[in-house]
Write a structure and sequence with these properties.
mainly alpha, 4 helices, 74 residues, single chain
């Protein structure tokens, strides 16, 4: 009986994992999200002045994106 419980647990866990992956791959704003992540990485590496020149995004906008990202768990 315990073996059936374990098998059903992993089956539902696998389904949830695959649904999560599918949702991320087919998200309607995927390109925008990837662009923002790239800007955040650039900001962390080169700082606010270079980011503002390269992407024309202010420091406050990037901090807002970072805050939202941390709030949702990444």
């Amino acid at each position: 009986m315990q073996q059936i419980y374990v098998a059903s647990y992993f089956k539902s866990g696998y389904s949830r994992c695959m649904q999560y992956i599918l949702d991320n791959l087919t998200h309607p704003k995927r390109k925008e999200i990837e662009n923002r992540l790239e800007i955040i990485k650039f900001f962390d590496e080169f700082g606010s002045e270079a980011t503002q020149r390269a992407f024309r995004k202010s420091r406050s906008t990037i901090y807002l994106w970072k805050q939202r990202l941390a709030k949702t768990g990444g």
